[in-house]
Write a structure and sequence with these properties.
five-stranded antiparallel sheet; 20 strands; transferase; 606 residues; phosphoprotein; Sig_transdc_His_kin_internal; kinase; Heat Shock Protein 90; cell membrane
Length: 606
């Protein structure tokens, strides 16, 4: 590892700079995580205290409303008159009960309003509660003495809907004339209505618990209904010692998995206390989320820093690396790559010397290439001079007329077809010709070959009339037809059919060309070798176009079997039309051969 590190200047610089940046980044991430965790806990406490304040305001509204309603009822004139009598008056009782029922029905949190006369037994109640045996009762826990108002603890009652937990305000009713006790008033609040909206407040993101604890430590209302009526000290010993009566605040209670944050807030009218508990597991889950975010942020920062470090170090060391590669991988067949010098220091001057050397070598190579090109051009001119087209046409024309005069019609026909074939092949030196002329060229070729090989093959032409005047590279079809005749039809020993199809591609502006025969076909291994030779020839053409030298390769029997003609067509297609127009060869032994290619429809002559 150390050897690998010290063997590269780029690696050494990258490690040193990365360590100097990433280590402080990790320390900053750890500090951010600890600070965020502390903020999360404090935020939860503040949010919880706001929730307790909101609950206390709603609770105080209900308690204050019950207090005001009790003051209104004990001072109401009809109630005073009814309770001051020594016996029950049914008509007055029904009238008073009706008004009490309307008051109770107007407030959802009031479960019952009841009046107990002191002089006679005729209690008035807006609700019907039952004993376990089904007998109707009205009384809440019986008042003792003549003390002022008091709130009872929570207790269960049974009505027509089932069990109902209530908290009751009991206060004496005294005569407004002589202040003597004439009865009792009881207003019961429904515990279910009191705690109805607590879960929706989402204390501790829904994981916390909210309870109303009386002055004696009894649980008056809770989100966990089985805890109602029980003493906090019995369920959670020591919790009440951490709650300061008459004050609001927070405390920590429990250990390990049972560790919780306790939030408490006093209710001033009754001395009760609202207590909320938030499990520490919530902090752990939130801290895990913060840890993941922090880790992602640190990782992304480390990656970005690493990328910047790598980019900077690479910018520094890349000139040396490039120069080293240039010097160690010199290819005599290709030009020396240019060294981009962007500085004036020692490395820049060394790069400039390297570039001068490359330019000198390139000039020498170009001189050699130009000499070879001039030599080939001279050889071609000698060959053209040896075959004078006009002399050849005139000679063939003379042979044609001599054959006609001698009644040798087959010789005359063959000579005429050969003359037309050569005239189209030369085409006045033009590389492109119309599709119709290429088809005519094939017809002349077939005319000559049909005399040589009579009744051995039949040609079918399927040409789209709209394409007949479109220009195409000349002499593309004749090698394919020759290949089909000599290597497809003749080996069968009988006759065969060759089909030439030229159609327009419906998807784009191209023409599809197909040469199909029903001859001997090729075995799979021979077909694979032919395809490989075509690919090798195309790669050689690319090398020639890019300035290299295309060397002769031996393709064995494939060339002697027609592979050379196909490779020549394939190379011409690549040079003039690109890689999308290469030959596609399909064949099966005894099933004939199918050769196709596609060329663009040219609007203008190249």
């Amino acid at each position: 590892m150390v050897r690998w590190l010290t063997s590269s200047l780029q690696r050494k610089l990258s490690v040193v700079v990365a360590a100097s940046m990433i280590v402080p980044l990790l320390a900053l991430g750890l500090f951010a995580f600890l600070f965020s965790s502390r903020i999360t806990e404090e935020k939860t406490k503040l949010s919880g205290m706001d929730t307790l304040k909101q609950v206390e305001a709603n609770l105080r509204y209900m308690l204050q409303d019950a207090e005001n309603l009790s003051i209104f009822l004990i001072g109401e004139r009809d109630i005073q008159q009814y309770l001051s009598r020594n016996e029950d008056h049914e008509r007055d009782r029904i009238d008073i009960l009706g008004r009490m029922t309307n008051l109770a029905a107007s407030k959802k949190y009031i479960a019952n309003i009841a009046i107990y006369p002191g002089r006679f037994d005729a209690a008035l109640s807006t609700a019907t509660w039952y004993e376990a045996d089904g007998a109707s009762i009205y009384n809440p826990p019986a008042p003792s003495g003549e003390s002022d108002k008091r709130w009872t603890g929570v207790y269960p009652v049974r009505n027509y809907a089932g069990i109902q937990n209530v908290i009751t305000l009991i206060r004496p009713i005294r005569s407004i004339h002589d202040y003597r006790l004439i009865g009792w008033l009881a207003i019961s609040l429904d515990e279910k209505v009191i705690s109805k909206g607590w879960p929706a407040l989402g204390l501790g993101r829904g994981e916390g618990r909210l309870e109303l604890i009386g002055s004696s430590g009894e649980i008056l209302s809770s989100m966990d209904k089985p805890r109602l009526g029980q003493h906090v000290s019995d369920l959670e010993p020591g919790l009440m010692l951490r709650i300061q009566k008459g004050r609001s605040g927070t405390a920590i209670y429990g250990e390990k998995k049972h560790k919780r944050t306790v939030l408490y807030y006093p209710e001033e009218l009754t001395g009760w206390t609202l207590v909320g508990t938030v499990p520490y597991e919530q902090y752990r889950s939130e801290n895990s989320y913060i840890l993941i975010l922090t880790a992602i942020a640190v990782a992304m920062s480390a990656l970005i820093s690493g990328g910047l470090i790598w980019f900077t170090v690479r910018r520094i060391t890349r000139p040396l690396l490039l120069l080293t590669r240039h010097l160690s991988r010199i290819d005599p067949k290709r030009p020396l790559p240019l060294f981009q010098s962007v500085s004036n220091d020692e490395i820049g001057r060394l790069g400039e010397s390297y570039n001068l050397l490359g330019e000198h070598i390139q000039l020498l190579k170009e001189e050699v290439i130009r000499g070879e090109a001039r030599k080939k051009e001279a050889d071609l001119r000698v060959l053209q001079a040896q075959i004078n087209p006009h002399f050849l046409y005139n000679t063939l024309s003379s042979v044609h007329w001599i054959a006609l005069m001698s009644n040798e019609s087959r010789i005359a026909d063959m000579v005429e077809g050969l003359s037309d074939f050569l005239r189209i092949s030369l085409n006045n030196g033009q590389d492109y010709c119309p599709v119709a002329q290429e088809i005519a060229h094939i017809r002349h070729y077939v005319r000559v070959q049909s005399i040589r090989f009579p009744d051995q093959f039949v040609l079918h032409y399927i040409v789209d009339p709209a394409l007949e005047q479109q220009m195409m590279l000349k002499l593309l079809l004749q090698p394919l037809v020759e290949n089909a005749m000599l290597h497809g039809i003749q080996p069968t020993g009988g006759g065969g059919t060759i089909t030439i199809m030229i159609q327009k591609d419906a998807r784009d502006e191209r023409m599809n060309i197909l040469v199909l025969d029903d001859g001997a076909g090729m075995a799979a291994d021979k077909l694979g070798q032919l395809r490989a030779n075509l690919i090798a020839g195309a790669e050689g053409s690319n090398a020639l176009r890019s300035g290299g030298q295309l060397q002769e390769k031996s393709f064995g029997s494939s060339l002697s079997d027609g592979g050379y003609g196909l490779r020549n067509v394939n190379e011409r297609l690549l040079l003039h039309y690109g890689a999308d127009s290469l030959l596609d060869v399909h064949s099966s032994e005894g099933g004939g051969t199918r050769i196709s290619f596609s060329i663009p429809i040219l609007e203008d002559m190249p």
